Amino acid sequence: MYRRQADSHTTIGFWQGLGWVLAGTLAAAITVVLAAAFNHLIIVGAVLAAVLGLYRDRRLRTADC
Q1: Is 10 in a helix, a strand, or coil?
Q2: Rounded CA gap, 15 and 54, in Å?
Q3: Rounded to an integer, what distance in angstroms lies between the CA atom of residue 20 and that of residue 29?
Q4: Where are the domains of the chain?
Q5: What pTM was computed for the model?
Q6: Which residues, at least 6 apart from 43, have a Cβ–Cβ distance to it below 8 Å?
């Protein structure tokens, strides 16, 4: 697992290092995908709120006439 050098610096093996690199890359990719999804949900929610607000406003204005 871990090997110690004479100067007491901890080293990791190739496969363990590759695992850390792949895990970090995967975590970054998941973060980007989730951020994009939540961003789109926020935009869609804001558009729906605006459309519903305009619809209710128009409906209330026509009911007053």
Answers
A1: strand
A2: 58
A3: 14
A4: 2-64
A5: 0.58
A6: none
Tally helices (H) and strands (E) across the chain.
1, 2
Residue 4 confidence (pLDDT): 57
What is the gyration radius of the CA atoms in the chain, in angstroms? 27
Mean pLDDT by 10 residues, the chain (65 residues): 60 89 98 97 97 92 75
Residue 9, token pair as written in the block: 């610096």
Q: Write the CA distances from 2 to 7, 11, 12, 15, 24, integer angstroms.
A: 14, 6, 6, 12, 20
Amino acid symbol at 41? L
Name the amino acid, one letter, at 43.
I
Q: Residue 8: how many CA atoms within 13 Å on its side-chain side?
A: 0
